[in-house]
Amino acid sequence: MTADHELQAQADAPPTPTSPAPAAAAGRRRTPLGPLTRYAELFEGPGPLRFVAAGFVARLTVGMAGLGTVLALTARGNSYSLAGSVAGVLGLATAVGGPQIGRLHDRYGQARVLPPVALTFGTAMGLIIAAISGNWPTWLLYPLAVVAGASLPLVGSLVRARWTKMYHSSDRLRTSYALEGATEEAVYTVGPVLVTALATGIGPLGRVSNVLVTATR
Question: I need a labelling partner for 192 at 20 to 30 A (CA). Which of 31, 59, 158, 184 fits?
Fold first, then answer.
């Protein structure tokens, strides 16, 4: 009888509330916008939005300068070998000059180095435009391409330096680098498409002019 009474008491007792499993509770807290929320947290305050937006526009130049030069030269009746060699010199000069400009940024700061670098690049690109439109001797294109390439503002490294300064001791630094990786991919996708679209709208020299405007704004 004692065992029967115990079984009856257990059956009549109210159910004991149980806490949800940790995994289930965590699953309910997650939302489809969770990853986007982490990116949005990077832009708390006005500073990040300004330098990220400016950096994206300025970085389009990297994906536009070489192709724009090729299209401008070939549209004026020059050979693809000339256009390709000039674009190659420009790209090689960027690879050599970029680290040197980066050292100057580290030593003197972005505010002091970037304006003269951008002005140098703009001047060199302007002279390339004049050389193409004025049918100057083709050998002049090569030293101009060296100057333009060496002074091409590599804004991506400047943006990453700002993220590092803001979040050097925070978990947000990894998120900011992930955003930078996505931005770089977008730049190399949008830049060539944009310069090709400009080719059908405002002419070959206009393409190079837009590269100039984009970089020096």
Answer: 158
